[in-house]
Design a protein that fits this description.
11 helices, about 30% helix, homodimer, five-stranded mixed β-barrel
Chain lengths: ~350, ~350
C-alpha cells in the first residue's frame, strides 16, 4: 500500500440505489442488478465491489447507501456494512451528500470518501487499488473533486467522457470539461484524441470538499443535509431524512455539481479492466467467448450462430442460425434482442410498468 | 355430397407416424406435432384432420396408422378410430400398404382409400371435400393412383412438385412427372409455368390398385403384407407385423411406387387453403398477423419488431428490435432462430439425440 496515504482517514461509500432495468428480465425491483451473481467470480456485483476495496480501509469504514426496500438484501450480501437509507431514490447527488455527512458523524472527523457504484466490474483489482490510492493521496493533499477516468478502449457511445486539462502529477489532470454520452461521430473523435477519458462514476474527495461544492451549486440539498446531520442518531432522524428526500431534486452529482465546479480533477493510470456492466452486451465483454464469439451461461446449444449472448440457467435454450443476438431467460420471463439494441431493454420495463405487470418488473 | 360417389365404398386412413422434429421444442417424442393443439380451431392437428373428412365416410370407416407408443394419444384424440399399429416407423409405403390390407379385411370388400397425413392444415374444409370427392369419384371409375395437387401460391422450395400431363376431366390430369423439392431457381420456373402442382401427400386410390402397384414396384413389401393379411384377427397377427416391419425397407410411397407407376393422376381444383404445417414459419402463415406482421401466441410483448413468430404459453417473452425471428417456448426449452432457418430446426433434435438429452427430445 502507498505509504503516503493515511488509511484511517479513508471511508468507502457504495452507491446501491440503482434499479438496473437494462438487465431485465434477470434484474427486478426486488432483486436489482447489483445483487445478481453475474460477476466473473460468481459473487454478486456488490459483493465483488466491496471485496475489491476492503484492503484500502479499516473494517468499519464502509457504508452502503440504498433504498429502504433493499435493506434485507444488503444485510445478506454485505453483513458488516453501515447502511445509509434513502427513503426514495434521488440520484447520486443526494446519495453522495448523505454519505458525506454520515461519514463525518460516524468517524467524528472529515474523511476522504471513495464513492463507488455497486454494480460495476473490474478485471484487475490490484491495478484498480493503485489508481484509487493515487486519487486518495491527491484528495488528502488538495481540496479537489476527483473522478476516476478510464482510458477508452473503443469509441463507446454508452459512457460520458471527461476531457483532461493541465497535468498536476503523473496520472492526475485538471478536468477541462465533462461531456454527456456522445453520438458515434463525436465518440470517434474523443477516442482518437487521447485527451478524453470515460467517466467511471467512481469519485474520490474529502467529505467537507464535496459538501462545500454542494453548498455552492445545490444550496437546497445542502440545507437539507445540514438538517439531517443535526438529527443523526436522534429520535427524528428517519422522519427528517424522509422529509428532506421528499422535497429535493433528483439529479446526478455530475450534472448538479461537477459540471459547474472549478476544482475537478481526473485521475487515471493503468488499465484495470473496468466495465460498467451497463447492459447485457457490456456484461458479456467481460468473459471469454467460444470460437464463434458466443458467450453462453447455462444450458444452451448454439448451431450456426455467432457473436450471441445466451443466459439460460432455468431451462434449455437452442439458438439456430443467429448472429449478434442476446437471449436472456429468467425462468418466468425471456428477453430476445439484437446486441445493437441492449441499451433499450429498459423500454420493456417502461412498457410493463404502463401495463401494470407487477409480476414482471 | 357428390351424388356420383358411393359413400359406403370409402375408407379414410390417417397417417400418424411422424415425429414433427421441425416443431421442436413443442413437438416431442411423446407428444409429436399431430397431437399439438396448434390448429386454428384450437383442436389438435389430428383431430382437425379427422373432423374435416368425417362427412365423407361411414362412422366406422376410419383408421389411424400409428406407432405403438402413441396408442394412448390416439385413443385420447380420436376415440372411435380403428388403430393400425406400426411396430416401428417404416415411412409411408409400408404404412399405406398396411392401411390397404386392413381396409380390405375390415370392410370385407375393396374400398377406395383416402390417405391423409395427420398433421396438415386446411383453410376451407368444404372446398377440400369437393376436391376429395372428385378424386374418389375418379378412383371409383378408374384403376389409378391419385395424388391431390395444390396450385402453388409461391415458388416454395419446401414441397415436392407434380407436373401435370393430359387432362382427363375437369381438375383431373395424368401425372407427367414427380419432382423432389426444387432449388429456388427451379421452384420459380415451376411456379411461373402453371403446369406444376405441390404434392400434398394426400392420396386416393382403391386398396387393390395401390396393392397391385406395390406388388410391381416393391415386391418384398407386398409379400410381407400378404403374410400379414392372412393373419389379421388371428393369434400371430402382431408378431408377424413386427417381423415384417423389422425387415422391410423404409421408403416413401412417392419414391417407392408413384414415381415408377404409369397410372398416376393428379386431382386439383379450387384453392382450399392447404398448408403442410411443415415448420413454424408455415404454421404462422395460417394466422392473422398484427400490424407489424408479427404472429404472437401467448404472453408476449414485441417492441420495434416486425415479421416475428412468437409462441410463449408458459412464460412471458419480450422481443425488442428484431425482424423475421422465430421464438418458441415450451416451458422446459426455448428455440430462437431466424424465419429463414426454420427448416433446420430438426438439426437441433439430431444434436440433442447425439448428446443423449432424452429430457429434451
Amino acid at each position: 500500500m502507498n505509504s503516503k496515504i493515511n488509511r484511517s482517514d479513508i471511508h468507502v461509500a457504495i452507491l446501491a440505489g440503482g434499479q438496473g432495468t437494462r438487465f431485465w428480465p434477470i434484474s427486478r425491483k426486488d432483486q436489482p442488478k447489483q445483487f445478481l451473481s453475474i460477476s466473473k467470480s460468481g459473487e454478486s456485483l456488490i459483493q465483488a465491489t466491496v471485496r475489491r476495496v476492503r484492503p484500502l480501509i479499516e473494517p468499519d469504514a464502509l457504508s452502503v447507501v440504498t433504498n429502504v426496500a433493499h435493506i434485507p438484501l444488503i444485510k445478506e450480501h454485505i453483513p458488516d456494512s453501515n447502511i445509509i437509507i434513502e427513503p426514495v431514490g434521488r440520484n447520486t447527488a443526494a446519495a453522495i451528500g448523505l454519505a458525506a455527512i454520515y461519514s463525518q458523524v460516524n468517524s467524528g472527523s472529515d474523511p476522504v470518501l471513495i464513492c463507488l457504484p455497486a454494480d460495476h466490474a473490474v478485471g484487475n483489482e490490484d491495478k484498480l487499488r493503485l489508481v484509487l490510492e493515487t486519487a486518495v493521496e491527491t484528495a488528502q493533499r488538495l481540496d479537489c473533486l476527483i473522478t476516476i477516468g478510464i482510458k477508452p478502449s473503443a469509441p463507446n457511445t454508452a459512457y460520458g467522457y471527461i476531457k483532461r486539462g493541465a497535468s498536476l502529477a503523473q496520472d492526475v489532470y485538471k478536468v477541462s470539461r465533462f461531456y454527456e454520452k456522445p453520438n458515434t461521430e463525436r465518440a470517434q473523435k474523443y477516442f482518437e484524441s487521447g485527451d478524453y477519458f470515460w467517466n467511471s462514476g467512481m469519485f474520490v474527495w474529502r467529505a467537507s470538499v464535496i459538501l462545500n461544492a454542494i453548498k455552492t451549486y445545490m444550496p437546497e440539498l445542502y440545507e437539507g443535509l445540514e438538517k439531517i446531520k443535526a438529527e443523526i442518531g436522534k429520535e427524528n432522524e428517519s422522519r427528517l431524512v424522509a422529509e428532506v428526500f421528499d422535497s429535493i431534486e433528483s439529479i446526478s452529482i455530475d450534472f448538479g455539481v461537477l459540471e459547474h465546479a472549478t476544482n475537478c480533477l481526473v485521475v487515471t493510470g493503468v488499465d484495470f479492466g473496468w466495465n460498467d456492466v451497463g447492459s447485457w452486451d457490456a456484461w458479456a465483454e467481460h468473459f471469454q467467448k467460444d470460437q464463434q464469439g458466443n458467450l453462453i451461461r447455462g444450458d444452451a446449444l448454439l448451431i450456426d450462430s455467432q457473436e450471441c449472448v445466451v443466459y439460460s440457467k432455468k431451462r434449455f435454450t437452442a439458438v439456430l442460425g443467429a448472429s449478434d443476438l442476446v437471449v436472456i431467460d429468467s425462468g418466468d420471463a425471456l428477453l430476445v434482442c439484437p446486441r445493437s439494441r441492449v441499451q433499450d431493454v429498459k423500454k420493456i420495463v417502461v412498457e410493463l410498468e404502463a401495463k401494470a405487470r407487477e409480476d414482471l418488473i
